Amino acid sequence: MNKKVAFFLLVIVFLVSTYFSYSFFSPENSGGLLSPLGRSDLSTKTGTNNNHINNNTEDTAPKTETCPLNGAKFSKAQREKWEKRRPLGVMIENHTDARPQSGLSRADVVYEAVAEGGITRFLAIFYCQDAPYIGPVRSARIYFIKLLQEYGDYPLYAHVGGANTPGPADALGEIRELGWANYNDLNQFSVPFPYFWRDYERLPNRATEHTVYSSTSKLWQYAAEKRELTNKDEDGNSWDRNFTQWVFIDDDSKNPKGEIKKISFGFWENFASDYKVDWVYDKQNNQYQRFNGGKVHLDKNTNKPITAKNVVILFANESQANDGYEGGHILYRLIGRGEALIFQNGNVIKSSWKKQDEESRMSFFNADGKEISFIGGPIWIEILPVGNEVSY
Predict the structure, then answer these.
(1) What pTM, to 2 d.p., does this model score?
(2) Which CATH architecture has domain 1-392?
């Protein structure tokens, strides 16, 4: 072999190894490695169109069945679908480069809290509806795990890595201790393509960490086929045997409507205006439209605004984990009691929340100690540090 050929082969080997090393070792901001899914034509690899996706095909059947997570009404055919699966929590990021996100409008319940640096993240709970595209999917945080624990036995948890610094914020360590690892935990590091994939075209010119997507149907399929987790576990136990439903009432047009037109708040006050939230009340449809950083919050799947029937402002003690992580992991005390504001029907209910332990359902009570009923439909729970101001 002459020197020119040898040199050429060395260059080829170097370029190939560099490409795969970059694909495999691209860092996720919370620690861990991202898998080498690489750039690809997702319309070919996933069998899904890469444009806006809307599977909200109008179901004309009578809406007689109540979703056990948020009280919304669906058809019997839809109920037959959800009765074969278990709740699925998905970590969806809210970095400005991740917007507009996909799938949030199809979640039954959504929790929002700061992940770090004033940047919030969503735990979207899916059960009664499917979302064909969800993401960008991001990393786990320990307080979201504690909230997800109340959704019955072994709820599915989809995320990309997670906080793993030893200490009180070690989300991946908590997953292992709970016995979730490689079972109901659907960490992208252990769940292969095509259940997670990268889409560089959906949000062009974004950094790699904003490109991981999935779909509810694929995740429920993986859980059933690979982990033997449908509505029952491998031992035949139903996920909801220890699940407590909230109290729901129908969205009755005869209910008196209030005059609170707008709810506004920030998570880290005087900081991160891109994460300021407004909920604007639509009296005609009796729902709240979300604004994210001063702009209408759209779901990329439908290109329509995200709305909710109930908006809960939950106040919790926030503290630093002090675990040495450069980004500054934080903690929220979500066990015990605290104050809350619940907005529905254009009114506000000054309330309190109570959660006895990780697996207990968080409940909300009015000033008389009566449990508050939610209007059937999407529920958004916004977690703010104690002392934050909410204007309405």
Answers:
(1) 0.87
(2) 3-Layer(bba) Sandwich (3.50)
